[in-house]
C-alpha cells in the first residue's frame, strides 16, 4: 500500500523529489539484478488501440498492491529491482521503436541484469528477443497468448502485433518457441504451427510442466500477452477473446517458472482505457509482482 | 480481423460501397442457407433498457474476431450466411413488432433457409417461434437463460420479456420446452414448471446431453438468452444475475447442438451500453460464430 | 422485480408516498426480527474511496432482483425485515461515526433483533462488533475478506480499514476470529496471525465446515468484505485483489451459515462508481438476499 | 449538503428510518402546497432509453446541493414541499401509465396543491396536462424543448414522446401553447406550427418576456424538457441536440416564471446513464430547486 | 429519427438488406453530387488514439438526428449524397493509407462529384488535398483547428497529424492556407506562420468573413478538425484543448461557407471512446448535416 | 507533447531513469524559483471523494499539452520550475496532513521560492496559508470558487473543505479575503460574508480588476477551486455546481494576476474519476501552465 512506492531523492534543502516506480522497485540501477522498463508503443494495433498507456497505468496503480506475496512468502523489498521508467518510442516509426527496445535490452543484458519489459502491444517483444537471442544463442521462448501471432504478413506489414511470433521464429527457427493458451488466429497459422514450426498448446496450459522440465537449464525468454486471461478477468485489452485462463491458472503457471532460467520477460497488451474499473491493471500489477518474485 | 468483414458492392465507376455485416457473413441471399437478422426491440424491458442496440453492436464489433474457429476447425468463409441487417420495428407497438418478426422469419423458413435472429430483448423470440411452429408442427425449443420467463402476466401485460416462454408454451404445449441454467424467477414460475409443463434444468446445463439425445432428428429452435452467462463474463445485459455459466461451459454446450436439427435460433439480451469494455459484445460475437459453425 | 420493493405510507388524502427499501424488506420495525441499515462511511480508505455510496446503491439496484431464492426455496416476503435506511455519519470524525454505529446496533440487539449492516468501508464493522460483544460476551467472528486487516497501525492511525480486525481482536482476544479467503497483507500480518491470534484460512474457504461445526450454538457475527470475491465478479471495490472466490463458492458458503446462530452481520466495501456495469451491486444484492434467507 | 435531505420517521423504540427525498422537501403531505412525484416511464423513447431512472437520480444526487439559493435569496426549508416518491407505472402499457399520472395529478390539484412531476420521457406530460386542463379550463402551456414534439404520429403510434405536444394541442387548441428553444423536428412540424397552431420560438428564449406578460394571471403549466439545454451542459439525455441554451440562460428564464401563476410543472428527459459524471443530474437538481423557489 | 437512415436493397425473394449510411444519404452513386466516405486511420496520433472509430460512430449515431435543418430550412432528402462506407486503410503503413485516400478522392473528383471525408486523424487530409490540388490547381484551403499542425517534423516523422498542414503547404505554397481557431502549438509554428506562410487567425473565427469574400469563386477545400470546438462541447477527441469555439459559433461559420465553391471537405479527429455520453458524435453528425446542406 | 516531460537522470551505465513531472517543469530544485507539489488528500470531502488523485492526473495528462502559450507568448521552458512530486499525507489524520503541508510550504518560502500546490480537496489550502501568513504578515488571499467555504463548522468538524476559508479568516481577519464566483452555500455563510468579513463577489468575476489594483504590491496567495468553472467545462469534481465560469473567463482572469505579487498559489478539487473523457484534467493542466507563466 502506501509506503515504499516512490524513490526519494534528497535535495540540498531537505526537499525531496518523488519518482514514480512500480511498487517498491526502487533499488539503484547498479545494485539491481532485474530492470523493469516500459515500451509505450501500439502503432500496429489493428483493432482497439491504447496499450501505449499500459506501463504507465501499471506503475500508477501499483499503489493499491502490497509488496508481500502470501503465495510465495516473499517480498519485493527483499529483491533488487530497478524501474527505469518508460522508453521514448517513435509512434509510427516501427523500425526505430524496435531498435530502441533492442538497444536498451542489450545494454541491460550486457551488464548481467534481467530485463522485464512492460508493453505496449505485442510487437515490442521482437525488439527484446532480438537482443536476447544475440546474448543467448540457445534461447528458447515461452509464449502465453490468446492469439497465435504467426501470420507471415498482416495488412501488408511484416512487422505487426499479428506477426510478432513469426518474426521471433525467423530468428530462432523450428522448435524453440512454446505457445500456450492459443485460441484465436487464421486457419493458416494453426496449420503452419502444426507442421512443427512451433510447439503450440491450444486453449490452455496443458503441457507446461513437460515443457519446463525439458527447458531446465536453458536460457528462456518469457512473453506474457495478458489477453491469454479470460476477458472476465482482464477486459482492458485491445482484442478481448472470451474463453481464456482464470487468474489462478495463470498465477500457478507463473510460480512454475521458478524452475527455469528466465533471462528476460515481458507483460504486454494491457489497454487501460477499456477497463475503467481498474481490475485489469490490478491483475497486471499482481502478475508482475509474482513474476518478479518467481524468477529472482 | 480486418479482412472479409464487409460485403463490397461494385458500382459503375469502380467506386465501391462497403456494407457492414457480421464478420464474413456476406453471401448473397439466394446462395445462403442461413440468414442473420437483427430485431432491435426492448419495449417491455422492466429494468435497464438498451438491448435495442445489441444487434448493431455485434455487427460492428465482429471486426475484432477471426472467421476461423480453432475449436471446431471450421471457418465462416466456408459456409453460406446472409446478413439481412436489422428489421425496422415499432417501439411501443408490441403486436406490430412481433408480427414483423414473424413475417420475416416465415419468409426465410419458406425458402428453406435457417433464420438466426439477434435481439433485442427476449420477447422477440415469440415472433420467431410463431413462424417456426407453423413451419414445423413438431417443433421443440431449447432455452438457455438465467430467468424462467414463465409468468402468465407481468405488470398487466401478457406480452413481455418476463412472459415470453409462457407464451411459447401457449403455442407448443407441455413437454416441448427444455430450459437450462434457470436461476431466477418468482416462486410461482418454478412451481408451474415443476408441474411438468416445461422441463426446467435449474442453475446449470445438467441434463443437456440427454435432452439432445432425445430430440435427435426433431426440428429444434434454440433460444439463447445471453444472461445465462455469469455477469463476470457478460455484464452488458439488462438484468445481471450472478451465479451463471462460464463462457467455456456455454461454448461446449453449443458444440453439442451440432447433433440436432436446429431449424432456427436466436441470441438475445445483449445491452452494450452497460459494458463499455466491449467484452460482452465480444462474447456474443464469438458465440454467434460458433453457433453458426455448429449448426451448419 | 417491480413489486413489493417500496414501503407505501398512506396519507390522509389517499396520496401515497413510495419509499425506497431493499427489495421487499418493508416490514414495520416492531414486527421485524432483522434490521438492515446502511453505514455510509469511507474516511480511512487509503486507495480508491467511494464505499460511502454502497448501501444506497444496494437499495436502488435491488429493483432488478426477485425476492424469491430458487437456491433455498425461500422468499424474502416470508420473513420479517425492516430497512432503516442509512445512518448519518460524520465524514472525517472516525470516533463519532463508530459511536453512532455502536449505538444503533446496541439498540437493535437490545430489542432482540438481528442487525445487518451495509457498508461503507470495513472499519464500520468495529462499531457493530463493539455492541455485539457487549450483548454476547461469547461472541465469535467469521470474517471473509481478501485482506487480513490485521495491522496494528496504518499511516499513523489505529482506527483504519486496514486495522479493523486487529481492533476486533483487541475486544475478543485469541482464537475467536476465523478468517477465510485472505490473500493480501503485509508479511507481518500473516506472521502475527500464524502465531495463533486468529484462525486464518488463506486464499479460499477450506476449513469452513469444520469452523461452523465448532461454533454451533455460539453467537456469531459474520462480516463479509465483498472483495473476497474475485474482481472479475466484483470489480466495484476500492482495492481489487485478483485471485478471489467465484460467486458460487461464496454463495455455497453463505448457505452453510444457516447452521450457525448469526446474531449480526455486515456486507462491506462495495464501491459502485468503480463498476458502471452494475454487476458488483447486483452481486451484493443477491448475496444480501441469500444471507437474510439463510440466517432467518 | 448532508442535512435535511431525509425525512425521519420516529419508531417506537427510538429507531429512526431515514427516507430519501429531494433535498429538504420533507414536509408532510397535508402541510405541503407543492407535491413532487416521479414518473419513471420511457416506453416510447425511440433512440436511447433510460429516462425511467431520472427521478430516482435527482433524489439521490440532491445530496450534493444546498437548500439555499443565493440567486433568489430563498431557501427550500422555508417552503412546504412534499416528495411522494415515484409512481409505479406499467412499462409498455402507455394508456395505463398516462391514466395513473393523470389520476395522481388530479388528486393533487383537487386538494389545492401544485404538482411538480419528474420524468421519465416527455410523454408523461400528457397525463399531467389532461388533469390540469380539466381543473383549469383556461390553461396555457409554456414548453421549453430542443424538439418540437408536434408530429401527428410517430412509428405508427399517436402517443409518443415525439407527438406529446401535438396531443396537448388536441386538448387545448390553437394559441395556448408557447414553445421556446426548438431546434429539431421534421419540416412538417415547423410548417404546422408556423400555421398558427402553437407559438413556436425557435432556437432560444426570445419572446419569453412578452409571453409571460401576456399570460399574467392565467393558469400556466410549465413543461421543461431538459434537452433544451446544450448537451455540453446536459449530456445525460436520450437525444442530445447540440446548439442549446446555456445553464444561466435557462436559470434566468426560470426566475421570470415567478410572475406567472404556475399551477403545475414538470422536468423531463434526464437519462442519467448517459452522463456518468453526474453533471446532468446536478443541473436537474439545481433547476428543480430554483423552479420550486420561483413558483412558490 | 427512425426513417430513411438505411438504404434498402431488394432481393429476389422480397427479403431486404438494410445498409447503414449516414442519415438519409442513400442516393445511388451515379445520381449523387456529393460522396461521403470514411478514412479510419490514426496511426500517427501521438497522445490518445481512437479516431479510427470516428466515421463508424457518425454513421451509427446519425440515427438520433433529423434530416431536416430548421436553421437552413433544408432537408438532406432534397440533396443527392452517396455514402460509400469506410475505406480499408493499412494501419501503420502511412504511405499506403495516404495513397488509398488520394486515389479514392481523385476518382470522385474526376466524376464531377464533391468528396466529403470523415476521419480518422488529421493526417488523412493530406491524401485528399493531394488529389484536390491536382484537380484544382488554384485550390485554397480553409482550416479550422485547435492546433497549428505546422511542424516540419514530429518525433522523426514528416508525415504526422502534427505536420499535416505543413505538408499541405508544401503542395500549395504561401498564402493559400487560411487557419482559424488555432490555440496550440510550438512557438516555432506560430513564428513560421507569422512569417506569412499561412494566414493564421488565432483563438477564434475573426476574419472569416473577409477570407470568404476574398476566396469567392475560387475552389476551396475545407478541413474541419473538430477539436476546434471547446472540449465542453466536444470531449471525444485525442487531444482536448480547452478554450475553443462554442457549437453555435462553429455552426454559424459553416452557414457562411455557402458563399464559397467548396470542392471537397473533411471532418476529422472524432475519437468516440473518450466521450461515452455520445455528445461529441452527436455534434459531429449535426455539423456534417449542416455542412452538406450548406455546400450543396 | 512528447518531449521535455520527464527529467532524465543519468546512471553510471548510460541507463536513464524517467521521472514524471508536470510538462517541462524539470529544473533542479536549487535553480527553481517556483516549486510545484501535490497534496493528495480528500478526507473531509462530504459528497463524492476522489480529489486525492488530482495531482497525479495533472502530471500524467500534461503529456497532451504544449509547453508554449500562444496567449501569453511565453514557454514553460523559459522559466524555472521544480516539480517535487506528491507529499505523503495521512488519510484520516487531518491535523497531521495539514502540518505536513505547512512544513513543506514554509521550507519552500524560506528559500525564497514560490510554492504552487496541486490538490486534493480545498482544505489543503489551510496548511499552505498558515505558512504563507507567517512568512508574509500582510498577506491577502484571492479565492475563486463555486462554494463560499465559510461555515464555522461542518458535520461537527471545524477543519473541513466546507470551512476552509473561514479558518483562513481566523488567521487573516476581516477584509483580507477576496472571493469570486461564489454561487453556493448556506444562507448563513452569505450573511456572514455580507457583514464585511470577506469581500465576496457572487456568481462571476466582477470587481476583479479593482481588487487587483487595490492589492498591487501586497503579497497575495491565490487559491483556485477549479469548481468555479462551469461543470460543462469541468465535470471532474466532487460537487459540481452548474452556472459557473467559462474556461476563457477564467483564463483571462489568470492573465490579470501578472500585475500582482503572487507569493503562493494552489489549484484544488480536480477529481479525475468523475470525468473519464479527461477534459477536466486537460483544463487543469492548461490553467496551471498559464498560471505559472503569468506569475513568474
CATH homologous superfamily title of chain A: Ureohydrolase domain
What is the β-strand count of chain A? 12
Assembly type: homohexamer
Beta-strand share of residues of chain A: 15-25%
**Unreliable runs of chain A:** 1-13
**What is the approximate shape of chain A?**
globular
Any idea of the CATH topology of chain A? Arginase, Chain A
Q: Order of strands across the widest beta sheet of chain A?
A: 6-3-7-12-11-8-9-10
The run of helices and strands of chain A is EEEHEEEHEHEHEHEHEHEH
Report Rg of chain A.
Answer: 18 Å
**Count of domains of chain A:** 1
Distance between the termini of chain A: 22 Å
Structural class, from helix and strand content of chain A?
A: alpha/beta
Indicate the mean pLDDT of chain A.
92
> Biggest protein-protein interface?
B-E, 31 and 31 residues
What characterizes the major β-sheet of chain A? 8 strands, parallel
Number of helices of chain A: 8
Which CATH architecture of chain A? Answer: 3-Layer(aba) Sandwich
